[in-house]
Amino acid sequence: MAAPHSTASRRVSARVGGIAESATLAVDAKAKELRAAGRPVIGFGAGEPDFPTPPPIVDVAVAACSDQRNHRYTPAAGLPELREAVADKTLRDSGLRVEPEQVLVTNGGKHAVYQAFATLVDPGDEVLLPAPYWTTYPEAISLAGGTPVVVHTDESSGYLPGVEQLEAARTAQTKVLLWCSPSNPTGAVATPELIAEVGRWAAQHGIWVITDEIYEHLVYDGAQHASMPVVAPEIADRCVVLNGVAKTYAMTGWRVGWMVGPADVVKAATNLQSHLSSNVCNVAQRAALAAVSGPLDAVAQMRSAFDRRRRTIVELLSDIDGVTCPVPRGAFYVYPSVRDLLGRTLRGTTVQTSVDLAAAVLEHAEVAVVPGEAFGTPGYFRMSYALGDDDLRTGVTRMAELLAEVG
Q1: Helix runs in 41-161, H state only
Q2: Cβ contact 210:120 at 8 Å
Q3: Distance of alpha carbon 100 from its chain centroid, rounded?
Q4: Which fold has domain 7-52+298-403?
């Protein structure tokens, strides 16, 4: 008989057993569960536009269902016409010129994140990970055998790391820097000058950069999205760009993302995908082809609505004693500090952490937020403003009324 804690008795591998559940999806699932039970919960957890996918894109997908070409396997790297369209779109939107063979179509942005780390990172490699970070990044790094090295930022620096911080964290084992601008979870947008400086630093030290640009079109107040290999061409041969249709075109459920990078890296990632999942759903690929090849009119309309909601939520949160809310310039999140509320009493209970406070807000105000612990920075909330204007105002008002009781 195997010993109680032997390898043979382990039901789940240590590698997979160590993965934490996605905190953002968990909060969203809890909010939906409570709503299904009849409670009027308003959820600020999910990073998901509340708009429908634009009808012309849906129409293409409907027609694709009857096209027998889409009933069969297609190339693992993606439909050739979609890879070409993504290359064209990348040049159009960011100024980065790539060939279709440098594009791998993936099952959503998360799949691209995982495959990028799996392709570049070996056991023992270190990955510089600015915090606050999206919850999936450290899990994908660890699954690849790498070690996340967290580089902490806060609102005093606009949630953006400088080269000095990155250099202080660099070791002989540093292989990759993860970069995300516009940022999930903070909404921070790095200036082109900072991005260029970081890119030149990475190139100087032979560090790869994985840059997540899925919020590229969601910038406000004159902020400018800049793609690192464009403003720092020195890094282009050691840079992988991640993107997808989910946020820009309100297509979170369609599950189409991509990675763009050096041809040898993309080929290696394609080999992995050929065993992992084969091709992405053909109907979804046809829809994505229509999205990236079409006009950006619907995107502009959604961005205008997000901008209005952004200003509203910042104003409402800033009126709450103990809450400090920097103004985000991108994506559709705010990342307010609630540190001044911790260690205090709310309805007879001392709230020690932002996890405690988020639980109290859900229970007593019926508002779902994601605590900063999920993003590597306790003492904060991430709140998505990609929800209806009325729900946004009602939800923050409920939260404000509850937090006014903190003593």
Answers
A1: 55-65, 80-94, 108-120, 136-143
A2: yes
A3: 24
A4: Aspartate Aminotransferase, domain 1 (3.90.1150)
CA torsion, points 326, 393, 346, 383, in degrees to nearest 10?
A: -50
Residue that the structure tokens 């993504």 belong to: 86
Q: Which residues of 291-318 are buried (b: 16+ CB within 10 A; e: fewer)?
A: bbbbebebbeebbebbbebbeebbebbe
Each domain of the chain, given as residue ranges in start order, spans: 7-52+298-403, 56-293
Query: Which amino acid, 154?
Result: D
Q: How far apart are CA 128 and CA 350, in angstroms?
A: 35
Q: Looking at residue 19, what DSSP letter applies? A: P
Of residues 15, 17, 23, 16, the one with CA closest to residue 377: 23
| Per-residue model confidence as pLDDT tens digits over 231-261 | 999 999 999 999 999 999 999 999 999 999 9
CA distance 314 to 327: 6
- The answer to whether 206 and 225 are in contact (CB under 8 A) is no
The residue to which tokens 């109680």 are assigned: 4
End-to-end CA distance of the chain: 57
Q: Give the single-character DSSP code of 160.
A: -
Q: How far apart are CA 121 and CA 402, in angstroms?
A: 45
Question: Alpha helix locations (H) across 319-404?
Answer: 354-360, 389-403
What is the DSSP secondary-structure string of 294-325? S-SHHHHHHHHHHHHHHHHHHHHHHTSTT-B-
Cα gap 166→171, rounded to integer Å: 10
- 49 neighbors 303 (Cβ within 8 angstroms): no
Closest CA to 396 of 378, 407, 379, 383: 383
* Fold of the CATH domain 56-293: Aspartate Aminotransferase; domain 2 (3.40.640)
pLDDT in tens, 284-329: 999 999 999 999 999 999 999 999 999 999 999 999 999 999 999 9
DSSP H/E element including 197: helix 192-204
| Stated pTM of the model | 0.94
* Residue showing tokens 């909601």: 309
Q: CA-based angle 151:153:159, to the nearest 5?
A: 130
Answer whether 159's CB lies under 8 Å from 184's CB: no
One DSSP character per residue, 337-383 reads B-GGGTTEEETTEEE-SHHHHHHHIIIII-EE-EEGGGGT-TTBEEE
